[in-house]
Amino acid sequence: MYVPGKLHDVEHVLIDVGTGYYVEKTAEDAKDFFKRKIDFLTKQMEKIQPALQEKHVMKQAVMEMMSQKIQQLTALGATQAAKA
Fold it and tell me: How far, in Å, CA of 67 to CA of 17, rounded?
C-alpha cells in the first residue's frame, strides 16, 4: 500500500528489503538496490517463462482431451437413453 507523505530527510530513506526487514540507505543507494532487484526479477521471469509456456500448452491439451471425453460420455448416455 502506498500513501502520500513528506520526507523530513530526503537524503536517507527506509526501504523494505524483504521478510519484514527494513534498511536505511541513502537515496542513491536505494536507487541502486531497486535497480539490482528489478534486474534480478527480470532475469528470473525470463528463466521461468519457457516452463510456463510449456505448462500452458499441456493444460490446453488436457482441457481438450477432457472436452472430448465429456462429449463421448454425453453421446453414449444419449444413445443409451434412446434405447431404453
Answer: 46
Angle at CA of residue 29, ends 27 and 31, nearest 5°: 70
Question: What's the rounded Cα separation, in Å, for the pair 21 and 36?
Answer: 17
Backbone angles phi, psi at 6, to 5 degrees: -125, 140
Strands (E), 9-67: 12-18, 21-26
Whether the Cβ atoms of residue 25 and residue 33 lie closer than 8 Å to each other: yes
14 pairs with which residues across the strands? Answer: 24
Which residues make Cβ contacts (< 8 Å) with residue 25, sequence separation at least 6?
A: 12, 13, 15, 33
Give 15-64 pLDDT, tens digit per residue. 999 899 999 999 999 999 999 999 999 999 999 999 999 999 999 999 99
